[in-house]
Design brief:
The protein is of the alpha/beta class and 449 residues long. The protein is 45% helix and 14% strand.
């Protein structure tokens, strides 16, 4: 019997179903083939890092790779050379050489004050790439503290994204503070001077320091981050380091009523002056981190990344971290920033994907938080800053982030040497503070020109 409509037989229906099925099969094959033809090609990105081992990047790289299976990320941690230079110096030299020879990475780490020296090596996230990566400048501006804008952007172009944001803070020895009956941590520099007087122990016969109250006043030979600390103290008093066009240094210049740069230098160096009432440090002392870790110095100034270093040197040392002191008449705090970011090389063949990766690991809260947790470094994202401001270990550094500043430096390494020599000339008695700061300013201006 044939009950099918339109006079169809079962045999004809089978033929129609077979034809339709074949057409659908061919259609799906066409779609799949089209996807294969137009699929996004595989991208390979090489990242050079200096401050983090591979483990620090593994988690954030994995998250990005799972979402972007066409992108392969290779992270190359820098290995320290034993040639007398610091790890950062070696990294910078090798990076410059590699880029000059055309064998550099797609992405590399940059210190927050490197842009004036290495801007030509970076392919910025300009208007075109901001559109391509869907990451406009205003979004960047709203994600990070002001110091990041000053350090890593020029004329609405983005040159780097911050991995974290560290700031100079005060480490203090709990046992020494308890032994000296100091219950309140100094919050102003006047209070700090008082604490120095209470803590320091000096042999009255030889004037030798038996217990140092603080690692402050020396050059970079004895005090880790000495140039950052003296720069901060000068800034807190109102010193400006360069003119508005960044063509010359001006940190020795006077205002109508004061000379903040000179005052800051004199304040800093008094702690290494044997004739000062606040004498508490000597260039003959062990390096500041070692002296603090051994319990021979009560206070040192450093960044969050120094916490694991101190703990590794002395696991039994009882210490805490407090905000860096401020001038008693300060309207708002001034802190000093030190951090690293990531940038795209002008030699990268895949700059759009390189910037996409950078934005994903630094500007997305999940990845940025994972990096902060893994490395123990304070975050740079404002949302994480707000969330972590009461963190028991990083809270101090996090709360200082939005008042942290830096200054335009043409060549960080050379300027550090100039500032350190300025300090040394004063504490050795070779030059007056007035002459030393004038000479340092001239040397920095010459470097800038």
């Amino acid at each position: 019997m044939n009950n099918l409509p339109f006079g169809l037989t079962f045999q004809k229906l089978k033929i129609i179903i077979a034809i339709v099925g074949s057409l659908l099969f061919l259609y799906f094959l066409f779609i799949i083939g089209l996807k294969i033809i137009v699929r996004v090609p595989t991208m390979k990105l090489v990242v050079w890092g200096v401050i983090d081992d591979k483990r620090a990047f593994d988690s954030i790289v994995d998250v990005y790779s799972k979402a972007n299976k066409n992108v392969t990320i290779t992270y190359v941690p820098y290995v320290q050379k034993n040639n007398g230079r610091s790890e950062v110096e070696n990294y910078e030299n090798d990076l410059v050489n590699a880029l000059a020879e055309g064998r550099g990475p797609d992405i590399f780490m940059v210190q927050n004050n490197w842009l004036p020296k290495h801007e030509s090596k970076i392919l910025p996230l300009d208007q075109r790439l901001q559109t391509a990566t869907e990451f406009p400048f205003v979004k960047y501006r709203d994600l990070f503290p002001e110091v990041v804008m000053n350090d890593f952007t020029r004329d609405s172009a983005i040159y780097a994204f911050p991995l974290y944001l560290d700031s100079l803070a005060m480490f203090y020895n709990l046992d020494i503070f308890a032994r000296k009956s100091i219950a309140v941590v100094p919050t102003t520099w006047s209070d700090f001077e008082s604490v120095v007087s209470q803590i320091r122990e000096i042999d009255t016969g030889t004037n030798n320091i038996k217990l140092s109250a603080a690692a402050i006043g020396g050059t970079t030979l004895s005090v880790n981050r000495a140039t950052d600390l003296v720069s901060l103290i000068m800034m807190q008093r109102g010193a400006k380091f360069t003119n508005s066009k960044n063509t010359s240094a001006i940190f020795s210049q006077s205002t109508e009523k004061t000379n903040p740069g000179l005052e800051g230098l004199k304040f800093y160096t008094q702690f290494a002056n044997p004739y000062s009432q606040f004498y508490t440090w000597s260039e003959r002392f062990p390096y500041s981190i070692d002296s603090f870790a051994s319990g021979n110095t009560a206070i040192m100034f450093n960044y969050a990344h120094a916490i694991p270093i101190v703990k590794a040197k002395n696991a039994f040392l009882k210490f805490r971290v407090a905000p860096v002191p401020q001038p008693a008449d300060a309207v708002q705090p001034t802190n000093y920033a030190n951090y690293w970011g990531v940038a795209v090389s002008t030699q990268s063949e895949n700059p759009q994907w390189a910037w996409d990766f950078i934005a994903a690991i630094t500007a997305k809260e999940v990845s940025a938080d994972a990096y902060s947790v893994e490395t123990g470094k304070p975050p740079a994202l404002l949302t994480l800053i707000d969330r972590k401001k009461n963190d028991p270990e990083l809270g101090v550094f996090v709360r200082q982030s939005q008042t942290a500043k830096s200054w335009w430096q043409k060549d960080t390494g050379s300027i550090e040497g100039i500032i350190s020599e300025m300090i040394g000339a004063v504490i050795r008695g070779e030059l007056s503070a007035e002459v030393a700061i004038d000479r340092a300013e001239d040397a920095v201006s010459l470097l800038m020109r």
